[in-house]
Amino acid sequence: MFEYSYRSTGPFEPVFHSHTFYEVYYFHEGKCNYLIGDQIYNLSPGDLILMYGMTLHCPKIDPSVPYIRSIIHFDPAILRPYLELPQAVPIMQPFEKFKNYRLCLRGANKEEAERILVTMHGYQQRGDQVGAGRLLLAFVDLLHFVYDQCLQPLSEQREFPSDKEKTVQNVVALLEDRYADDELNMERLQKELHLSKSYLAKIFKEVTGVTIFEYVYRKRVNEAKILFLLHPGMAVTEVSFRLGFKHLAHFSRLFKRHVGSTPERYKRELKDKRVTMQKVGDGEWIYST
């Protein structure tokens, strides 16, 4: 699969989500804190983010100013013909090594990235087979550009614009480690972080746009989806208890609220739609259901 949205300004649902495909996200303008896993990025125009989609992520924007971004979703399988060429550049290495990574593009680098995005949009607008082919080639060029940028030393010291966001970063890091603890509650967070419950709740909501336990529950549901995908034989009850739910009914209600179907139905649909990749012959690949 390959989807490209150029300079999108449309509304979006500010919820934490994940997906099985990879993502390239480019921030054109606006005010946005982007939470990806246990990292919070305060974005500036020219920031390009590589995302390994299974990581929980969500932007927190300021709705008083335009929020403009370009987004590419893709399955790495579409790149196989380019990766198998003689002397091919390992353009997927940044995704594989870093999982999620921000490039702060400025000056000439920013201009080059935006030029490639404009070129991709032009080919997309053609709406024909040649345009689709050249769109993919332009995307491969973008990935070469990204790879080139990632060759630079990755010793950048991340800076937080405020102590508040640094504190929330610490909260998220703790939640990433303890999200499946069935004894997790605000009292324990208060004790471990040495901050009042009311202050923790207030700043977390301000920075991320969700409450602490909305984040925790979304994280648990996301992990449940991953477990169902990777371990199709695992029972719903086992997944529920493994992720910190004391009652199966609570897990089922939350899962349905976030996903739109019960865990049992989700598992059945996943089984029906699961795509397996098989290698046949010498270097030839087919997809079968």
Structural domain count: 2
Supply Rg. Answer: 21 Å
Number of strands: 10
Estimate the mean pLDDT confidence: 85
Number of helices: 11
How far apart are the termini? 16 Å
Unreliable residue stretches: 153-157, 275-289
Biggest sheet architecture:
5 strands, antiparallel
Query: Strand-and-helix sequence, N→C?
Result: EEEEEEEHHEHHHHHHHHHEE
Helix proportion: 40-55%
Structural class: alpha+beta
User: If classified by CATH, what would the architecture of the largest domain be?
Assistant: Sandwich
Find the CATH topology of the largest domain. Jelly Rolls
Shape: globular
Order of strands across the biggest sheet?
Answer: 1-7-2-5-8
- β-sheet strand percentage: 15-25%
CATH superfamily of the largest domain: Regulatory protein AraC
CATH class of the largest domain equals Mainly Beta
Task: Describe the model.
This protein has 289 residues and is α+β, with helices and mostly antiparallel strands. The protein folds into 2 domains: 2-150, Jelly Rolls (Sandwich); 163-273, Homeodomain-like (Arc Repressor Mutant, subunit A, Orthogonal Bundle), CATH 1.10.10. Helices cover 47% and strands 19% of the residues. The protein has 11 helices and 10 strands. The chain has helices at residues 80-83, 93-98, 107-126, 129-150, 163-178, 186-193, 197-208, 212-230, 236-242, 248-259, 263-273; strands spanning 2-8, 22-29, 32-36, 39-42, 47-52, 57-61, 68-74, 101-104, 276-280, 284-288. The strands form 3 sheets. The protein has a 5-stranded antiparallel beta sheet with strand order 1-7-2-5-8. Strands 4-3-6 form a 3-stranded antiparallel beta sheet, with helices on one face. A two-stranded antiparallel ribbon has the order 9-10. Strand 9 (276-280) and strand 10 (284-288) form a beta hairpin. The longest helix has 22 residues, at 129-150.
